[in-house]
Amino acid sequence: MKNLSSRNNGIYTKNSRKKGDKIIRYEGNIVPNYIASVHHSMTLSEHFSFEWKKGNIYDHVNHSCKPNCYIDMSDGVPILLALRDISSDEELCYNYNSVEVDLTKDWVAFPCHCKQSNCVR
Hints:
This protein is mostly beta strands and 121 residues long. The protein has no helices and ten strands. A hairpin with a 6-residue loop joins strand 8 and strand 9.
């Protein structure tokens, strides 16, 4: 993660990235939802979440309704990938609702206030 920097409560890439580039492979454990941290985990199913240690760089990958990254779970471990070409010194973000499992009909997992034209709120 030496090609990333943390500032202003966000993660920025030091180098440009191409669409599909692997940026971060999360490290952590799959845990039952009832013990998962709200701020340091991703909901995988009605019963399980992927959780990482507090204070990790993952804590600063922010949400956007117009993201430049996405989370791929095909290997059972979250991997942050470039959704499009990303310029150097651009903040990395993904749509949190794309990984959170909707447990109730019409429930929005993450209340957003980004004010993008496609904002979920």
